[in-house]
Amino acid sequence: MKLVFLGPPGAGKGTQAAFIAEAAKIPTISTGAMLREAIANKTELGKTAEAYTSKGELVPDEVVIGIVKDRLTEADCKNGYILDGFPRTVAQAQALDDMLPDAIDVALSLEVPDEAIIERLTGRRECKNCKATFHIKNNPSAKGDVCDKCGGELIQRADDSLETIQNRMSVYHAQTEPIKDYYKDCGKLKCVNGVGSVEEIKAALFSALGLSEAL
Ligand code: AMP
Question: Where is the segment annotated NMP (predicted)?
Fold first, then answer.
């Protein structure tokens, strides 16, 4: 299964992608996570990316397209993948199709209104060590302030401040939302309601993808 996961920042794509990846036994490829790793490692890519990510702006298409192209040729992508955070513009979606015409089977859009996003993102926490994501109210770590998977410190992402979130939302509406029409026109778009409990949303997504919970 080759899947693009669409939806506003904070829609819960990361949490739900992990469930789908486990059930379908395919990797999740998150351009945001790849860029954060490059920033943490202070690589040339990281230095370029940080100037944009710190303001909530999109990293230039050619930079992101290059890292995705390299990643999709790795062996673990042979049976499919979930793209989380890419494509982010119609130009990126077109570049992906030009590069790999069979790159995508399904574009799944997780639909969440803006007000719910603001509440979610300001409460989001990420494990500094294993990158697992939590929410202080909706999906807290069983171990409180530390990650219940690896014991790592839970931190708020630099781009989850209110001002940056508002900027990311307007960037999403202006530049990323039009991708839905792009995949609709190809007959690949499926929309799923992203409001509800983590379990309810998981069930709706699995049903849309024809995945069994027991897989
Ligand atoms: P995310 O974790 O997907 O919310 O990404 C965090 C930040 O990384 C975004 O706000 C962008 O600055 C940058 N980024 C991630 N993916 C892309 C992409 N496909 N195109 C451009 N910028 C991206």
Answer: 30-59
